[in-house]
Amino acid sequence: MNQTIQTLLGLSVCLNALFISLGVWIILKRGGLSYLATRVPLLRKLGIKSTQGSPFNFPYYDHRKSQLSLLPVNASNIIFLGDSITDEGEWAELLNNPAIRNRGISSDTTIGVLDRLQDIIAPRPQKIFLMIGVNDLSNLGRSPADVVQTHKEILTQIREQSPQTNVFIQSVLPIHPSLFLGFVTNSNIQTLNEQLQRLANEFSYPYINLHAHFLGAHHQLDAQYTSDGIHLNGIAYQRWAKLIEPHVLP
Amino acid sequence: MNQTIQTLLGLSVCLNALFISLGVWIILKRGGLSYLATRVPLLRKLGIKSTQGSPFNFPYYDHRKSQLSLLPVNASNIIFLGDSITDEGEWAELLNNPAIRNRGISSDTTIGVLDRLQDIIAPRPQKIFLMIGVNDLSNLGRSPADVVQTHKEILTQIREQSPQTNVFIQSVLPIHPSLFLGFVTNSNIQTLNEQLQRLANEFSYPYINLHAHFLGAHHQLDAQYTSDGIHLNGIAYQRWAKLIEPHVLP
Fold it and tell me: Which residue intervals define the domain SGNH hydrolase-type esterase in the entry (chains A, B) (predicted)?
């Protein structure tokens, strides 16, 4: 009997060791502690932060950044700059305008946008439609005030280096919390948007309140627009295009 | 002593149960057995197949399919049709041609393309650049012969419903096995391409052997083109665009 229990204990402990090793292996493969910090808010509160501007989508981010860096921008271009929500829109088609350039990259943050801003503003494009910040909140655990600080650096560089460019600051969109698996609240998004609107006024850039147009019940992203609580389907992109069309046209 | 071992056994078994529950929860969350079949070749050999055409990228696939279904195609358009490798290319920019429409969807298969073909061919576009099949091999565990059978259905529908459309059948690209986490071999890709070339001849559509231009050592995808062994960076897209440019121009 004692022998049997000891054997069972041995097996059970081995199985646990196997499970733990598997877990550690998966986490290491995805980027170790810095990856974990993007998934576990507690770690971020303990001061462990992701070292990457865009911790999630590693190969995709690198590939797309490298592709975009080789594609020229010119002074007649209208740039759509942001994260996945911008990236996933076929803007030139949605707005029937071949001058439009999609410069969204899935998983990007204000830090990532600041980092790749030079390629975009050096050719002094006509307009920039900017929507960025939800991944700062969700993936990097930054506060709205911190995020707006990086927005301010982005706008300062644009104003200084390309004063003719008109920047349309689009509000961050709401999420649908029960569908979305990330770490961000609609109340944080609301705070970010209020501060973004003040920042836009400060720079005399137009602020576009898209947020209000995508709300459903309980001040959440309307479920008709999304399958995962944050990204958008075709109806949402049609609506968005309609809302900004007057600003895209000269 | 006996008491201690029994307590330890109890704890260890509870931990076992916890880990197993966690694993089951994660798998169920991602789509259950059908998801597992996309990751474990053995299950596919046992006849458990994914019920989805595109088992991986659920919310993204739905969102993009819905967006594309609302964007019109016309007879002057040049369609890029395929999976992530097509989806991730900014083709209108790469080829400096506003008639180009990107109809790639990340994670798509020949089955998915067949399913959404009507929207694309009903308006009888000028040209279609097709690259599809690697996810059939990798995610659905289909054989090259099976995949080419679905290719044949795609080409038959195009030929019947839009005989003026010229279809450029692009070879599937090689992978870099030590960087790629999916289940596909370069030898299977090679077999698929040989059969695709025969199919192209059968239909008198041009076959474009991109595969040969992306090979590095050991007949693998050249590591200079990729961070994850299957998707492409900017240098690769520049090269691809250069190779097909003569076919895109009228």
Answer: 80-239
